[in-house]
Amino acid sequence: MRVYHGSILTVDEKDTVVQYLVEDSGRIVFTGNELPAKWSDAPRVELGDRALCPSFADTHAHFASFATFNAGLNVMNAESNADIVDALHDFAASSTSSLLLAFGASSHSVRERRLVSREKLDRACGRKPAVVIKYDGHACIVNSALLAKLRKRLEHLRGYHPESGEMNQEAFFAVSDYITNSISLPTLVRNMQHAMDLYASRGFGLVHSVSGVGFALNLDITLECLLANSAQNGFQLRIFPQSLNISTATRRHLPRIGGCFECALDGCFGSKDAALLSPYKDEAESGVLYYDDEKVLEFVESANQAALQIEMHAIGDKAFDQATRCLKAALEKHPRSDHRHGIIHACLPTDDGLDICAQYGIHLPVQPAFIDWNQEPDTYLADILGPERAAKLNPLRSMSDQGIRLSAGSDAPCTDPDPIMWLSKACNHTNPAESLTIREALRMCTYNGYWASFDEKNRGSLEVGKIADMVILSKSPYATPANQLSEITVEQTFLSGEAYQPQNQNPARALLAGMGSR
């Protein structure tokens, strides 16, 4: 039992702030401004200038991929390709892995304004196979050693560019398959455990993982299910199989389906394959809509009728319209009062599509990190979309004002999971008219994330009877000016009332424990 005294941000229906919270056996047993005498002698945590709030939720992450890349070299903050080469050279000298893996390269965030080349990678790591994944997870650059290993399986595929080493489209997916299938099972499990630890250190208690790409027999889905069952530290995983085949979910008794990759309706702005209603600026092309309405409608109707929760990736306005159009048709054919279907990203929504979301209860797991994103900066987006369309990107205020529920996701490993950065960007939008208030932003990052996976009855707000998944922040965001929100830090995470402890189970024991609890 513990008593917390100070600024308690409950994020309940009224956004109540109280002075006391009492936790007992992992549950919240009291919140209020006057502590009852029966708890006056209980151990007390004095918050002082700090604040207690619900744990955060990441409602869109590629957890297995993030775990894999997090164990490699992160080059997102490199200011030049020379920095990437130097970092990879040092990484090669210290790594014992048979394959060097780096993630986060962008032509927009380095001085050269182009991706690092195969030739430069060769200088960095010599004969050791190496791959640098592009920030958006849609392309990579391989060095000569890895190219020699994979040439026969790549040379007849679309997107094969041996001169530069850049692999796109089918060639990229072949490289991705090679990477994921080269990782040993114990290493993959250990990487996932470390990823949980990193998430918890940043205040997260829940991650929605979109899974099922690149791993043989959907091994990532299986492992995530087992780890979710075996976690001894209260950390929560909710898994969305990225498949158009609903049996991928139903045979595992998962109540949800969707995500990116096979469930993506279009591409991304970085590759100019996000589907637009009118062409990219100064070009004739309008991106790529991956499926026709008939295919999408077949999927959403079957999933909706099977009582599955559906999510689909849509970045461009044409894809967003397709997603809303098909979800509306499916819900009219088979109405459901509490489906909680969602459209991931929704970067460039249309007015008609937002009307459908508001009317049919479709929620939006958005990515605040995409606002003023270093890997895909506003100047680049204005160049390819035109200033008028670029100003309409990620319109959080417009979405919220229509009564659409927003949750926040990282799209990890595309961006680093960081809820404080989400709060800051949501409240300091590059288009000020689209900024949220801090209370709206905190709700988006906490309660709404738990709501989005039907977890709000037990978690997501600090209310009596709920599980004590909580975070101590260095200061209260409610008392912090919007332009100073980024200075807040996560000091400690409590899950089920206990300070989070790293997941140190032996990988084999963790999997056996997961099997035993099913």
Explain the overall architecture:
With 518 residues, the protein is of the alpha/beta class. Helix content is 34%, strand content 21%. It has 18 helices and 20 strands. A 7-stranded mixed β-sheet has the order 3-2-1-4-18-19-20, with no helix packed on it. A 5-stranded mixed β-sheet has the order 6-7-8-9-10. Helix 6 (185-201) crosses helix 18, helix 10 runs parallel beside helix 11 (351-360) and helix 15 runs antiparallel to helix 16 (438-445). It starts with a strand and ends with a helix.
How is this fold's topology laid out?
Elements: E1 2-9, E2 17-24, E3 27-32, E4 44-54, E5 56-61, H1 63-70, E6 73-74, H2 81-94, E7 100-105, H3 118-125, E8 130-134, E9 139-142, H4 144-154, E10 166-168, H5 169-181, H6 185-201, E11 204-211, H7 219-230, E12 236-241, H8 247-250, E13 256-264, H9 293-305, E14 309-314, H10 317-333, E15 342-345, H11 351-360, E16 364-366, H12 378-385, H13 387-390, H14 396-401, E17 406-408, H15 419-427, H16 438-445, H17 447-451, E18 470-473, E19 490-495, E20 498-499, H18 507-516
Parallel strand pairs: 1-4, 5-11, 6-7, 7-8, 11-12, 13-14, 14-15, 16-17
Antiparallel strand pairs: 1-2, 2-3, 4-18, 8-9, 9-10, 18-19, 19-20
Features of the shown structure:
single chain, 518 residues, alpha/beta, seven-stranded mixed sheet, five-stranded mixed sheet, 18 helices, 20 strands, 34% helix, 21% strand, globular
Strand order of the largest sheet: 3-2-1-4-18-19-20
* Secondary structure category: alpha/beta
Separate helix tally = 18
Strand tally: 20
Q: In angstroms, what is the radius of gyration? A: 23 Å
Largest sheet: 7 strands, mixed
Query: Which consecutive residue ranges, at least 5 long each, have pLDDT under 50?
Result: none
Average pLDDT level: 94
As a percent range, the share of strand residues is: 15-25%
State the end-to-end CA separation: 30 Å
Using the alpha-carbon principal axes, give the shape. Answer: globular
Helix content: 25-40%
